[in-house]
Amino acid sequence: MTASSDGLVLAAEFDAPTREAWLVDVDKAIKGGDFDKILVSTTLDGIRIEPLYTADDIAVEHDESGFPGFAPLIRGGLLAPRVDGAWDIRASIAHPDPAVANAQALTELRNGATSLELHLDLTGDGGGISVRSVDDLARVLDGVLLDLAPVSVRAGAASAIAAAWLSAILAARSVVGAQPAGCVGIDPFAALAADGVLPQGLEQAIAEGVRIAGSSTTPRLRTFRASAVVAADAGASEGQELAFALASATTYLRALVDGGLDVAAAAGQIVIELAADVDVFATIAKVRALRHCWSTVLEASGLTVDAQHPGLVQVAAHAGGRWLTVVDPWVNLLRGTSAALGAIVGGADTLTVAAFDGAEGLPSDLGRRLARNTQLLLQDESGIGRVLDPAGGSYYVETLTDAFAAVGWKGFQTIEAAGGLAAVLAAGTFQAQVAETAAKRDRLLANRKQPITGVSEFPLIGERRPEPTAAPAADTRPGLVLAGTATTVAPLKARRLAEPYEALRAAAEAAGSTPTIFLANIGTGPSYVARATFSSNLFATGGIDAVGEGGYADAAAAATAFAASGARAAVICGTDAAYAEQGAAYATALKAAGATFVYLAGRAGDAKADYEAAGVDDFVFMGVDVLSTLQRLHTTLGV
Question: Domain 90-416 has what CATH class?
């Protein structure tokens, strides 16, 4: 109990809470159900997520998290809270036209962004600002105060060329020494994993980065980016993402040290990047776990991070990628806010939030503005950046951080034992592991145990989506050719989680008229409304509109209404008691009225054979494979 200043013992009239007493109340609430099935979930790494965490869940008697700015960096990489609670709000610029990209960059910086991320296309493959020379890049950066605004570059395999151009521009504008900041983005592993090929070869690409770092006179402009976003976008779990980031960063660290830099200087040339996901607590714990693991790598390399190395470890977060949707894109604003919150509470130094309408094609001005304002509102209105490690001390977050660090470290050790990231990518073992994890997630998406709001849950047929932003004419200039002995691997293919559902919606929208399914509701509203609502929601995820005017007194009335509806499929909705009495009759009558396919909403139980004999073709219920159900119906309806 806690005593106040006047000696009053707070909560003195209440018994001390115990887990045993809590479990008794839980059992009453779940009415004797299975505790694990109802209240416990498991991550794709096999980590149990409990409904309650206490001090007993912390494995040690003392706090091993240390102080902010000191190893193991769990509490954060800074010694004090951010000035004015501000972090680096990074704006992503990728419009193919350099002039438009320049205008967007200036707009972002004038309206609250503090740095730029330039997606450059040097080779003509698309997917970024079309630049073919240093003059093109200078045009993109015209008017940008390079001594104030950090610039980071993404140019894939051509990053070394882009880095040389950026260095030339800085020199021409007399921006030298500690003035420029950002990252030139040498990241051969991410480029190789994303494309499956690195034209100049992996060893040469890393060597180019080491040469750039060794000759750098701009200490705040980092050379290497060790990004695990490519793994996350291919479906990796948190542990696999951490393992990829650690393995690539460690390879770069070794190369830099072998190139003549000491460990501290080498670590200062690396930015580590993770994906910020919509699970707020998972993102918080993942960012904290990354710092812990990377601090351990540095310590094993002979460097203990302390007050002499402020800001040495820099973590960037990217909120976007796999969770963006084309269908109901407005919900992406909520997803982006959740992901951004998790990244900043976890202590990310730099954050990029994707535009809500950027899942396909170029984002609009509105999309870019709202992406920027998402961070500004979190920064200025919530003040989350004013507190160091705001989630620290939460038994859940601390336990999850330890669990992520353990599974990420184990994955990293496995990669190292197999010869390093280059070896496992060449062998395809890491790609296979990620594909296995992605398949597990696909099953959760298919049965909606992992729902996507607006897509697989609460869909809106006929929704209004933002008008797509027109892309400029393709650049007809030839792209740059990278010479060398290519390294090739099986790529980590990026895929958005919503794509299978969106394919169904797109097919339905492309049909001559909206496909429909008839709600054959038995009886009055209270008897069918739950299953009718469930069915309407389920079929709408595939772009199929549920039609019907309410409940029907008998099978004949339902069959007559079905025939008049113009639908070709029907779903019977009612209570289990109503099914026992009229379910078979409804199915027979609907088939006689011309129904091509008849569903029954609910599990069939022991009466499955009888229902099927009466004409029921399939059953829909909580936990059914929604995707395969809808794909079969699309085929049946000729969608």
Answer: alpha beta
